[in-house]
Amino acid sequence: MRACVPLIVALLCGLAWADLYSAPNSCQGRCHEAFDRHHPCHCNDRCQEFGNCCKDFESLCSNHEGFSYSSDAITKEELQSISEKIYRADTNKAQKEDIVLNSQNCISPSETGDQVDRCPEPLFTYVNEKLFSKPTYAAFINLLNNYQRATGHGEHFSAQQLAEQDTFLREIMRTAVMKELYSFLHHQNRYSSEQEFVDDLKNMWFGLYSRSSEERDSSGFEHVFSGEVKKGKVTGFHNWIRFYLQEKEGLVDYYSHIYDGPWDSYPDVLAMQFNWDGYYKEVGSAFIGSSPEFEFALYSLCFIARPGKVCQLSLGGHPLAIQTYPWDNSTYGNGKKYIATAYVISSTQ
Q1: What is the pLDDT of residues 81-95, one digit of tens each?
Q2: Can you tell me whether residue 97 is helix, strand or coil?
Q3: What is the pLDDT of residues 250-267, one digit of tens each?
Q4: Per DSSP, what are the bridge partners of residue 259?
Q5: Catalytic residue (one of 42, 93, 223, 230)
């Protein structure tokens, strides 16, 4: 078995993100201008709060990390500290005996486009499904089949499906993981109340927008956790529970992996290649064995603190980076942007 390369190298070799997310306009000559809803991206003093800054905002308009004004800046050290607290708070995560993983063949980044099945066995040999009876797991799983995976087909939720979104948010907010996250963001002046925080989470994750046509056919939650198919390829699909359930049904065929994280307990990180009922995923990174609230918390943290940027965290003493992207073509509230995607991009021993 060949040694896996660092995940950041593998992902950069395996995906051309510029093909998926077009570069927004520049802040050149626009720093600290007034908000104008007609602009696709912004350069005002609060654009990072709302996740709608132009890509070059920080280099042209700001000398601070996080928000453009230092009183509300979230530092790298603070991100690493809160991510360690969230890591320790995840008591709902899988224990070692709950999952038996069979990662098999590790390939090089140059081979990810080959679409060759190099692993004859499933990725998951065993999962203790008692995990799925826990309230946050059960609420999460109820959401997974509420979407049409093909972009271009509008999503229309029933009253029950909308209620399932509220149930999921209610259950995760009862956990120590999300209480840690809210306490941190409240202290950082991001939210004045827990209800404001929950309302914003619902909009940023479950709000619908158009990814390929005039139809409102996508959301951050659908893309990241459930997965989509666009132009004949799998996009998103960064969740181990979804993977396991689809593999169990014979709908996912695990092909190989290019990275296996340094953690000797769960959650771990795996970057893999697979076929999803006829469509190929060239590089898909996912936490393994984490609770739904853990992933939701870290991705939300990074989207709020580092929208469109690399978010450097620490888990169990190991560095880890997450990349998020806002959806630039539509907004909610006072110019806030929806989550387009979020995924792990790097981790080193």
Answers
A1: 999 999 999 999 999
A2: helix
A3: 999 999 999 999 999 999
A4: 271
A5: 223
- Distances 8 to 67, 227, 320 between C-alpha atoms, Å: 25, 21, 10
Residues present in the chain in total: 349
- Of 42, 93, 230, 238, the catalytic one is 238
- pLDDT tens for 107-140 read 999 999 999 999 999 999 999 999 999 999 999 9
Active site residue 281: yes
Q: What is the dihedral of CA 140, 134, 202, 188, to 10 degrees?
A: -130
Active site residue 223: yes
**String of b and e for 135-154 (b: at least 16 CB within 10 Å)?**
bbbebbbbbbebbbbebbee
Query: Known catalytic residue: 156?
Result: no
According to DSSP, residue 343 is labeled: E
The structure tokens listed for 70 are 């230092």
Please return the burial class of 255, using the count of CB atoms within 10 Å of its CB with bins 0-12, 13-18 and 19+. buried
Which residue stretches of the chain are H helix? 7-14, 47-50, 57-61, 76-89, 135-144, 159-173, 176-187, 194-206, 220-221, 240-248, 292-305
Residue 340: closest CA among 270, 238, 244: 238
Rounded-to-integer distance, Cα 134 and Cα 128, Å: 12
Contact residues for 22 (Cβ-Cβ < 8 A; gap 6+)? 328
| DSSP H or E stretch at residue 230 | strand 228-230
Q: Which of these is catalytic: 230, 257, 281, 337? A: 281
DSSP 8-class letter at 132? G
Using DSSP's 3-state secondary structure scheme, residue 259 falls into strand
**Helix, coil or strand: residue 279:** strand
Whole-model pTM?
Answer: 0.82
